[in-house]
Amino acid sequence: MDNNRIHELRERLDGINGELLKLLSERASIGIEIGEIKKSEGLPFHDPVRENEMLDRLAARNEGPFEDAVIRHLFKEIFKATLQLQQPAGKPQLLVSRKSKTEDTIIRIKGTAIGGSDSVLVAGPCSVESAEQVMEVAASLKRAGVPVIRGGAFKPRTSPYDFQGLGFEGLVMLKEAADEFGLLTISEIVDPRHLERAADYVDIIQIGARNMHNFELLKAAGDMRKPVLLKRGLAATLDEFLHAAEYIVSRGNSEVMLIERGIRTYEKWTRNTLDISAVPILKQQSHLPVLVDVSHSTGRKEIMAPCAKAALAAGADGIMVEVHPNPPAALSDADQQLDIGEFEQFVREVKASGLYRQSVP
Ligand code: PEP
Ligand code: MN
């Protein structure tokens, strides 16, 4: 008897499922037609105000047994599915995505190409400390065939009592040393108000890990027409990293390079954890050049060369490394900077690996 009743009720449920499916399909067809009108009129597909009105009306008409929250949840799913029909690719494509631009972005600066067929090395002190210091480093870069010198002049330090950098004076020293040896310059800018003035001294603006989520700085860098090296935030997901790059590119500055510099994990034997998997993922997801900073990620001199080789093997377009004439006396990152001899050995090893792409050796 009970079995018969269940059978009968199940048949009714099947009938209702069929009715619901018919209604859902009818609703979807109307949604698609609305989507086409919106598209032709350039209106946004998603209308959160209208969505809330519909949910409020449904909740007001709800007589149970489902709670209002359940009804809202169910209908929200239906709305979401309809929106996906209107907009087949889901969310609008990011400009930094490979789906928006399939070919690699190549950033050309005074004869150096970043992101093309050749690998690039970027090296220099953590901080610019004196004219002599950067001059000595620049000379060693020239000897080693490294085209880009880095050096921080505005240092985002953990402690306000630590060396904060020489500011614009440091940028002048960096540029003088670079000009002497025909190198490109890269330096971190932390204040949007400094960008324009800094552009006279730097060929590439660095946005540091701590500022990857500084949206006003990203927007201001996006308004510049100057290449930007964007570092991955200390705890940023790759999705957040790409969206940070999108802030720059969406304002018209398409010359953005991404750099993996290690993320925070529980591991203490390295300064950060070099996320090598970020390299092929970023290369697959985005057309922007991808570099790896082996200094801030590892913090350990003896593993920098193998990590650089791993990065190149994974598809990185370039490597950044810190070098200082007298690391123990450095005013920042003393433990991780290579001395000039170690740096020259590092470059030799990386270049000899067969992984460093160089059309003119
Ligand atoms: C740097 O490259 O000078 C630096 C401070 O690195 P990060 O922003 O990756 O910590
Ligand atoms: Mn440093």
Automatic annotation (TrEMBL):
Keyword terms of this UniProt record: Transferase
UniProt xrefs under Pfam families: CM_2, DAHP_synth_1
SMART domains for the chain: CM_2
Statement: the UniProt record of this protein carries the keyword Cell membrane: no
Molecular function, one GO term: aldehyde-lyase activity
GO terms, biological process: aromatic amino acid family biosynthetic process; chorismate metabolic process
NCBIfam families, sorted: DAHP_synth_Bsub (TIGR01361), PRK08673.1 (NF006421), PRK12595.1 (NF009239)
Protein name: 3-deoxy-7-phosphoheptulonate synthase
